[in-house]
Amino acid sequence: MSKTIMVVDDSASVRTVVGIALRGTGYEVIEAHNGKDAVSKLTGQKVHLIISDVNMPEMDGITFVKTLKQHPSYRFTPILMLTTESDAGKKQEGQAAGAKAWMLKPFQPEQMLGAVQKLCLP
Predict the structure, then answer these.
(1) What is the pLDDT of residues 28-63, one digit of tens each?
(2) Which pTM does this prediction carry?
(3) All structural domains of the chain with their residue ranges
(4) How many whole angstroms separate alpha carbon 57 and alpha carbon 54?
């Protein structure tokens, strides 16, 4: 059975690149263009991992992580922040909110897939 990963990024090109890499290795992908969109698409289905940007309109990644952790179905879903944000304070804020990992853009697809394999829930 394939695993489902949600990709949350306001950049369509980033969603495409991440989606191609994930689908190419057998993952199902749900795309959302910001935190608010992501919350509306999470309707209780099993999601094994969420990859989210930090800086997005409407609802940023850290607010999204905090919102997600309030949801009983997704409280334990691992979250990988994929972002251009290298500020240590932001990173600490993300980890305090519940993000499991932090990866900087631009990224190598192989590097991202390695992190995905480590983080994905069984």
Answers:
(1) 999 999 999 999 999 999 999 999 999 999 999 999
(2) 0.96
(3) 4-119
(4) 10
Tokens of 31: 């795309």
Q: How far is CA 85 from CA 3, 23, 102, in A?
A: 27, 26, 9
Helices (H), the chain: 12-24, 35-41, 61-69, 88-97, 109-119
The predicted-structure confidence for 69-91, as pLDDT tens digits, reads as follows 999 999 999 999 999 999 999 99
At the top level of CATH, the class of 4-119 is alpha beta
DSSP alpha helices (H): ranges in 42-120? 61-69, 88-97, 109-119
Q: Give the list of residues 6+ apart from residue 77 with CB closer than 8 angstroms, or none.
A: 47, 48, 49, 50, 68, 121
